[in-house]
Design brief:
The structure holds two protein chains of two kinds. Chain A is of the alpha/beta class. Helix content of chain A is 41%, strand content 28%. Chain A has helices at 40-48, 72-78, 95-109, 117-131, 135-138, 148-162, 178-191, 206-210, 231-239, 242-252, and strands at residues 2-11, 14-24, 29-33, 53-62, 65-66, 80-83, 90-94, 141-142, 166-170, 197-201, 215-220, 223-228. In chain A, a hairpin with a 2-residue loop joins strand 1 (2-11) and strand 2 (14-24). Chain B is α/β, with parallel strands linked by helices. Helices cover 20% and strands 40% of the residues of chain B. Chain B has helices at 4-21, 27-43, 59-62, 138-145, 380-387, 393-409, 415-428; strands at 67-68, 90-95, 98-106, 112-117, 150-155, 165-171, 178-180, 183-188, 193-202, 208-218, 223-231, 237-246, 251-258, 263-272, 278-287, 292-301, 307-316, 321-330, 338-347, 353-362, 368-376. In chain B, strands 1, 4, 5, 7, 8, 10, 12, 14, 16, 18 and 20 form an eleven-stranded mixed sheet that branches. The N and C termini of chain B lie far apart (62 Å). The chains are: A alpha/beta, B alpha/beta. Chains A and B meet through helix 2, strand 7, helix 3 and strand 8 of A and helix 5 and helix 6 of B.
Chain lengths: 253, 435
């Protein structure tokens, strides 16, 4: 589904990704861990085409198509979704209106009929229940006045409504209490199927107790330096990243 | 060879000729017009040397040889889009400034006194004309000089009418540019409530000049909700003067919405003459092409415990130019005044210009006054967020622009007008067809 080959990217003038390779097959959940500044968030933002994030070389194929030449909205319509680390507040734009416009843009792209307000509301209500967001919140302007946890749950709500093929979670677990964490994990687990893939970017192993990955990768200085199964996350939790950095340094010598 | 002075003189002489062509009125009207013409002729049109006019050059108005309006023929269907007659307590339609009985809805049982007038009417409230909008202002003087049709709206003591009175001014394209001089008087007596909507619109690409004057008396504990929607042809000139006087514990709310017009100047002045009175002025100007809209507001706090809240927003595209010049005066006696003024502007093109000029004159020492203004582009982060959710770049821009305006539109209390404004905004925005 996603093939990243030798990806180099910079943010403004600073090179962050330095030859990253990653292959994600349909149905897989990949966790990407790593210390601060290793390039985790850069990877997420490059994949969705955030301004100021530039690919300098390498290739990203999504279902065989070159993702990097597509405008952000096209990537979303193709089925790539990023749950942002810091979702923005958009005063004046009603959450429900926004979500329907988003869903209909996706549906139109997939050749499906656009949903009218009634059908959409029915779908939304059902999804809202799963992320435990109440109607009052959903009818407010996008993220305006939401708590940190509410913003994250709103990201998961959007994901549930848009039903992406590839969902990327950028530190969605940071700053969440245990209940919110469970809701987020449930939301993602609800999406899991042999057709859906997930990339979970996280600092902590905690989320991975609820959202069990098929693969765990360690990112260091813009490259994946170690990959393993879910037990790698436990090792990292116990031993930190130091040993990986040492291993990497030793290998480089 | 003619000198500049001769040109100016002959241009002003034209207005004397127009006055002679008007239907004759009673002694009051003759004197009123006479004084207006005299004042106007001695002042002439303002120039950009004058402080209040530095941003706006009215030479295009001064050099146009206007004629009086004659025709009041339009098809009812032509105004369906702007009509709110189903929800309004009354809808008075003025075609090219002339009152049309046929097109209007005027229900005598409304509880309000709604009196459209022309030169032949005698109306008791006429003596209130000119008390608030004084003829030391050139365009007020010009309006007085050509006073013909207008309306007096009066809410008697303790009369509360929630549904709005709609004054709908429609202009049509004529062989020669017309001058239209609407005159409106709103009198809200003690503890009354009235909502008035003025709409200015045009059919076709009409080229004309609307020069309106509205005076609003808000008596003790009365509440006036006043909306002005200017959606005229891009070939139209529009100058408006709104003058308000507020007595003790009164409330006045203005919603000034500007979409149309080529060259537009709006003046609103409210005098908070009574203790505890409250004034809110909201404004929106949505401009494109070469439109020029100049908004001047004055809120004069003359007594203690008065409050004001002002929010003006500008959205400027193309090579348009917008001005917000807002004065807040707090007189020495006006202790415990609280005032907030905000002007936010959104520039959608590199060639659009906005000038924002908040002016505070504070002579009292125990007051709370906040003001702030911003000029900016669309928030890039928000734009990307919407795009990352599959919404196309153009639609995302429209959505954010709409959101920017919606803060002002949502404050419009007359629901039917609010809906019209929303629709108008959606139409005007680039790529704004997103369900």
């Amino acid at each position: 589904m996603l093939e990243i080959t030798n990806l180099h990217a910079r943010v403004d003038e600073k090179e962050i990704l330095k030859g990253l390779n990653l292959s994600v097959q349909p149905g897989e959940v990949h966790a990407i861990m790593g210390p601060n500044g290793s390039g985790k968030s850069t990877l997420a933002n490059v994949l969705v085409g955030r301004p100021h994030y530039h690919v300098t070389s390498g290739e990203v194929l999504f279902e065989g198509k070159d993702l990097m030449v597509m405008a952000p909205e096209l990537r979303a319509r193709e089925g790539v979704f990023l749950a942002f680390q810091y979702p923005v507040e958009i005063p004046g734009v009603n959450n429900t209106y926004f979500l329907r416009a988003a869903l209909n843009a996706v549906r139109k792209h997939r050749g499906l009929e656009e949903l009218d307000a009634v059908d959409f509301l029915q779908l939304l209500r059902q999804k809202m229940k799963s992320v435990e967001l109440d109607e009052g919140l959903v009818n407010r302007p996008v993220n305006e006045g939401f708590s940190g946890g509410e913003k994250k749950r709103n990201e998961i709500l959007q994901m549930a409504v848009l039903d992406p093929k590839l969902a990327i979670l950028d530190e969605t677990d940071s700053g969440l209490d245990i209940d919110a964490l469970r809701i987020v994990a449930d939301g993602v687990n609800g999406l899991r199927s042999e057709l859906h893939s997930v990339i979970v970017i996280t600092h902590y192993q905690r989320l991975l107790n609820y959202l069990v990955p098929d693969f765990v990768h360690v990112l260091h200085e813009g490259r994946i330096v170690k990959s393993g199964g879910k037990e790698l996350a436990h090792d990292l939790e116990k031993r930190g990243y130091g040993w990986i950095e040492e291993e990497f340094a030793a290998a480089a010598r | 060879m003619t000198t500049a002075a001769q040109t100016t003189e002959s241009r002003l002489e034209r207005y004397a000729e127009l006055q002679r062509q008007l239907p004759k009125g009673d002694a009051f009207l003759r004197e009123f017009r006479g004084k207006g013409l005299e004042a106007f002729t001695s002042m002439g049109f303002p120039t950009t040397d004058q402080e209040a006019w530095i941003y706006t050059n009215v030479a295009p108005i001064a050099r146009t040889p206007f004629v009086l309006s004659q025709s009041r023929v339009i098809d009812r269907a032509a105004i369906a889009e702007v009509s709110i007659r189903d929800t309004a307590v009354a809808e008075l339609v003025f075609v090219n400034g002339l009152f049309s009985t046929e097109l209007s809805k005027l229900d005598a049982t409304s509880g309000l006194e709604i009196s459209p007038f022309d030169a032949t009417s005698t109306h008791a409230s006429k003596e209130l004309f000119g008390q608030l909008a004084t003829i030391d202002q050139p365009f007020v003087a010009l309006n007085a000089a050509l006073l013909d049709h207008g309306v007096v709206i009066k809410a008697s003591r303790r009369v509360i009418v929630a549904a709005p009175v709609h004054l709908l001014f429609v202009a049509t394209a004529q062989p020669q540019a017309q001058i239209i001089s609407p005159r409106i008087l709103i009198v809200a007596e003690e503890s009354s409530h009235v909502a008035v909507v003025e709409t200015y619109t045009s059919l076709d690409r009409a080229n004309y000049f609307t020069n309106s004057v509205t005076e609003v008396f808000v008596a003790e504990n009365a509440d006036v909700d006043h909306t002005r929607v200017q959606r005229e042809s891009l070939h139209a000139f529009h100058v408006s003067t709104v003058a308000v006087r507020q007595a003790r514990s009164s409330v006045y709310a203005s919603h000034a919405m500007n979409f149309g017009g080529g060259l537009v100047r709006n003046d609103i002045k409210s005098l908070l003459a009574g203790e505890g009175s409250d004034c809110s002025l909201d404004g929106l100007f949505v401009l494109d092409g070469r439109q020029h809209v100049d908004n001047h507001t004055v809120i004069d706090h003359a007594t203690p415990h008065t409050t004001s809240n002002e929010l003006y927003k500008g959205i400027l595209d193309g090579e348009s130019r917008g001005i917000f010049d807002g004065s807040i005066i707090v007189r020495k006696a006006a202790q415990k005044t609280s005032s907030r003024q905000t002007n936010n502007n959104l520039l959608l093109s590199d060639s659009a210009i906005v000038d924002t000029k908040p002016q505070l004159e504070i002579y009292a020492d125990d007051v709370k006054c906040n003001h702030g203004s911003t000029i900016g582009q669309l928030n890039e982060e928000a734009l990307f967020y919407l795009q990352s959710r599959a919404i196309g770049a153009d639609d995302a821009r429209s959505l954010l622009t709409y959101a920017f305006a919606s803060e002002v539109v949502s404050r419009v209390k007359v629901a039917a007008v609010r809906d019209q404004l929303s629709a108008m905004l959606l139409n005007q925005l680039p790529g704004a067809r997103n369900s």
